[in-house]
Amino acid sequence: MDNFGKTILCVLIGLISGFGCFAQYNEQDIRNYIEQYADVAIEKMQEYKIPASITIAQGIFESACGKSRLATEGNNHFGIKCHTEWTGDTILIDDDELQECFRKYASVSESYTDHSLFLTTRKRYSNLFELDIMDYQAWARTLKQDGYATNPQYADRLISLIDRFNIASLDTIWQKTYGQYPLQEPASKPVAENKKPASQPTTAEKPGKKVFTALGSEYPSDQSPFTYRKVFKNNNTYFVIAEKGDTYEKISQDIMVMCENLRKFNDAGPNDEPVENEIVYVEAKAHGNNVRIHTVQAGETLRYISQRYGVQLRYILKYNMLDENSIIHPGDQILLRR
Q1: What ranges make up the beta strands (E) of the chain?
Q2: Domain 3-178 falls in which CATH fold?
Q3: Which residue, 9, 78, 94, 231, is the most exposed by fewest CB within 10 angstroms?
Q4: H or E element: which one contains 260?
């Protein structure tokens, strides 16, 4: 998207929230907001049974990614007005009327808690909790029907935002973290746990599957005193790029690392050999990645994901409650850190 397109996006999104209309923000702001408040939204999902995806989407719209005056001065991320029962601090903001009274919080976390209490203690929203907690579309439409917002497109906006930025993955994380399961099949199905007999090769070992390759220009480079090969870094882990005809034995000799260890670093089997331009890590990969979740694409395997993000395969299996024989499918959500 060019700068003009981003500006239009900022303005359109900002207009959704009356008091946030002058706070422009872009796609990166949205991603940053999701990352910053994902954990607290998941915690509130566990405590109050409100989808984290809905909470985050509302927070984005109502606070302009935390940039609106109500958010910056009042820590109010959900546009909750004072109402008669509120006895805490307040802030006056022009909204539907001039100088309307909104709740002011000591922290953003308090705003998230009050948002949860606002929905769970008001009778008008009681029908929300009869819905499948994984059905964010039904939650968005029912919120609009119950009068949370006056914008006629409010539900569609929430759903579009959740779909575009894969925010429903937070609901899947809650599901996996707390061992909860939906009443119905979720929009993004969880990783299947069908098992193959141990004697058969796993998906990652079958020929013709994708391997993670690179040209090197997309990664920071470095020099190593132990090899003539150019060394690169991914997720704070050093790797080299396999040349045509390379084997793990040959690479191990070039970089002065035992072949057995090299195979272990790359989760390679005893009969596997790297293909041209494949990433070959020369030290142990990390325990996690700054990227929280990966959506599986066609042909990808757990090993492919491990190599792409520089995360040890055994930790990916642990985070997703899988084993080496588990099968993954396009659309599955794979956690890359605890």
Answers
A1: 90-93, 100-103, 221-222, 231-234, 237-241, 279-281, 293-295, 333-335
A2: Lysozyme (1.10.530)
A3: 94
A4: helix 259-265
The pLDDT of residue 15 is above 80: no
Judging by beta carbons within 10 Å of its beta carbon (0-12, 13-18, 19+), is residue 77 exposed, middle or buried? Answer: buried
Q: Rounded to whole angstroms, how far apart are CA atoms 277 and 210?
A: 12
> How much is the pLDDT for 14?
41
Q: Which tokens sit at 243? A: 């040349």
Per-residue pLDDT of 211-237, as tens digits, reads 888 877 778 887 665 677 888 999 989
Domain ranges of the chain: 3-178, 203-335
DSSP 8-state class, residue 195:
B
Q: Taking Cα atoms as reference points, which of 134, 76, 132 lies closest to residue 104?
A: 76
- Report the largest interatomic distance among the alpha carbons of the chain, rounded to a whole angstrom: 75
**C-beta of residue 55 within 8 angstroms of C-beta of residue 115:** yes
Asked whether 25 and 67 are in contact (CB, 8 A), the reply is yes
b/e burial code for range 305-327 (CB count within 10 A of at least 16 → b): bbbbbbbbbebbeebbebebebb
Share of the chain above pLDDT 90, in %: 48
User: For position 210, what pLDDT does the model report?
Assistant: 79
Q: In which band, very low, low, confident or very high, does the pLDDT at 267 lie, cut at 50, 70 and 90?
A: very high
Q: How far is CA 332 from CA 173, 181, 190, in A?
A: 12, 15, 6
Place of tokens 């959704």: 16
Rg (CA), the chain: 24
